[in-house]
Amino acid sequence: MAQEEFEKSSSDGGTKKKKNGCLVFLIVMLSLLLVMLIAVAVGMNYIFGRLGRFENPIPSDGTIPKMSDEFVVETQEGIETLETVAPTDVTFETVDVLEGDLINIMLIGQDRRPGEERARSDSMILVTLNKDAGTIKLTSFMRDTYVQVPGYLDNRLNVAYRYGGTDLMNETFKVNFGLEIDGNVMVDFDEFTEIIEIVGGVTLEMTSAEAKYMNSHSDNHFSSGMNYLNAEDALTFTRMRYLSGGDYGRTDRQRRVIVAIAESLRDADLMTIFNLIDQVLPHIVTNLTDAQIVEYATAGLGILAGGGEMETFRIPQDDAHYNASIRGMAVLVPDLEMCREDLQEFLYGNEG
User: Fold this and answer.
1) Is residue 205 very low, low, confident or very high in pLDDT (cuts 50, 70, 90)?
2) CB-based contact 64:159 (threshold 8 Å)
3) Where would I find the H helices in 100-181?
4) What are phi and psi of 245, to 5 degrees?
5) Which of 54, 168, 211, 254 is 20 to 30 A removed from 89 (C-alpha atoms)?
6) d(CA 345, CA 182)
């Protein structure tokens, strides 16, 4: 009988020890997890605190003031060869909003002159992430596209940001192209060179005409085919517009530089990516929330790491606009319904 009680006592003690051991292990693991979460939260707060944030001042009475037409008139070569069209002769179709489970982020490049707080958007590139299809698509919108600007006279697309910041810009894209913009990211061209320096330059393919132009504007030598560009050369490459194709070629070169940057990150390890993000963020302004940044960055990096495709496009396409002179401006008058259909096909395929 005593032997049985001893064995039972020993058994109970062993069970208690196991339970206590499991409890201690669980407490230790939870403590480590808590420390890691705190460290991540502190790190994220530090990183996001380095970002610039958009400001969209709105008049106190809720109205948007009109601006002088003189603001947008510039001297433009070749404008005298364009057909002069009266603003009243241009009509705009109502377009349906594009629908689908995509992430649309508008990249804004601006070239501020001394004394300007906010300039026109010199370049507008829509980055569309499709997590299901594993694709990233870049769509350039021509800055001289003649559009409806809510609350203002019809004007070039690039004045919307100057007039009313990202709020008015996003509404302009919705009204004219049926696009819902999830967020905006802006960089000045001066800061663009610093970003290129941080990522270590870019390697991309040039035509012989592009190489010739670059050789006349750089101390480095370029040739047709693949070339390495440092920060200053990359800026020159994205700004050149006096070649065949004019501003169309310029937007194509901007997309090629972005693709080259993304391609260089495909095989980068996580620590390298975090270091780059930490250095790049101070040069960027955005209206994305912290949660959106984490979600979209994770989606984009996941697509790249998985070998996802990157495709590029332009709006308006050649058959979806005509050139004209309106109120002294050389503009592209779009067929908005065709533009919407082109976007539907490029971004969503045959869906929608």
Assistant:
1) very high
2) no
3) 159-177
4) 105, -20
5) 168
6) 20
Helix (H, G, I), strand (E, B) or coil at 94: coil
How many CB atoms are located within 10 Å of the residue 136 CB?
22
Q: 67 and 160 in contact (C-beta within 8 Å)?
A: no
* Residue with more model confidence, 15 or 130: 130
Q: How far, rounded to the nearest angstrom, does the alpha carbon of residue 172 sit from its chain's CA centroid?
A: 17
pTM for this model (two decimals): 0.76
pLDDT of residue 271: 76
> Furthest-apart CA pair in the chain: how many Å?
115
Place of tokens 């829509």: 126
Contacts of 83 (CB under 8 A, 6+ apart): 323, 324, 325
User: Cβ of 62: how many Cβ atoms within 10 Å?
Assistant: 6
For residue 134, what are its two tokens? 């594993």
Burial track 303-325 (b if 16+ CB lie within 10 A, e otherwise): bbeeebebebbbbbeeebbeebb
Over residues 87-126, the pLDDT tens digits come to 999 999 888 888 778 999 999 887 655 455 555 677 899 9
E strand segments, 40-179: 52-53, 103-110, 121-130, 135-141, 146-147, 155-156
In DSSP terms, 286 is beta-bridged to 53, 185
CA 218 to chain centre: 28
Taking only the tens place, the pLDDT of each residue in 29-56 is: 665 655 454 444 445 555 666 667 766 5
Mean pLDDT of the chain: 78
